[in-house]
Every structure is written in structure tokens, then in C-alpha cells.
Design brief:
Blueprint: H1 2-20, H2 26-33, H3 42-62, H4 83-99, H5 103-108, H6 115-130
């Protein structure tokens, strides 16, 4: 029950932050990414503020821990660049740059009722479950 409560609280805070900062607005994101055209640098302050909170928290609270707040063991990160990581990053970046929607903010904006978000989520889930390199939740 504690894990569910921690997940619910952190998810609500994340979604609230995404909506307040307007990172769920694809046009705001696309204007931020368009550095040669109609650039809107206001999201840089959002990213900077997040880093100001994250960096000290990571080094003093998260990095020394062996278990997460919800009791799960902290995962170990794979070091180095792999072809799968590079290809996945390129695909993610191209998709984000084309439509201005990222998976986290897309989930945070599901209740806004915009049809583009539902199409994005359906495409994202289709791509995830359609990949042969990702373990399926059901047996093939």
C-alpha cells in the first residue's frame, strides 16, 4: 500500500509541475526547441529550476541509498553507449522535435481532453509493445 501511495503522490506532483510549467503544451515545447526561429526560452527556467533541486538531492539523498523510498532496491545503471541506446535516443528526439510531446507530459495531459494526446499515447504504446526488443507483458 505504501508503494502505491508514494507512486500516487509523486505522479500527482509530477503532473501538476508539468501542467503549471506548460511543458504539456506542444506549441510551447516546439517554440523552445526552435532556436533559429520563434524561440521561447521560458522552459529553460523550468529545466534550470529542476536541476537546482535535483542535483543536490541526487548527491546527498539518492546516490548513497541502497533502497528507494518505496522499498525497492535501487537499480544499477549500465555505463557506456550502446547502439540500442543511441538509436532509441535519436528516435525519441526526432519524435519529440516533430510533435512537441514527450511521454511524461503526455500522461500528465491525458485529462485535458485533447485528441492529439490520445493519438500520441496510442502510437507510443503500439511502438512499445510492437518492438521485438522489448519484453511483452504477455507470452508470445
Amino acid at each position: 500500500m505504501f508503494k502505491v501511495l508514494v507512486g500516487l503522490i509523486t505522479g500527482l506532483l509530477f503532473g501538476l509541475g508539468m501542467n503549471i510549467s506548460q511543458m504539456v503544451n506542444p506549441y510551447k515545447v516546439l517554440n523552445f526547441l526552435d532556436v533559429t526561429g520563434n524561440w521561447d526560452g521560458s522552459l529553460a527556467f523550468v529545466i534550470g529550476g529542476a536541476l537546482l533541486v535535483f542535483l543536490p538531492s541526487y548527491h546527498f539523498l539518492i546516490k548513497p541509498r541502497t533502497h528507494a523510498v518505496n522499498g525497492d532496491e535501487m537499480p544499477t545503471l549500465q555505463q557506456g553507449l550502446t547502439p540500442k541506446l543511441i538509436i532509441g535516443s535519436v528516435i525519441f528526439g526526432l519524435g519529440w522535435g516533430m510533435v512537441g510531446i514527450c511521454p511524461g507530459p503526455a500522461v500528465a495531459s491525458l485529462l485535458r481532453g485533447e485528441s492529439a494526446i490520445y493519438w500520441f499515447m496510442a502510437s507510443m504504446l503500439l511502438g512499445y509493445y510492437g518492438s521485438k526488443n522489448v519484453p511483452w507483458p504477455i507470452k508470445r
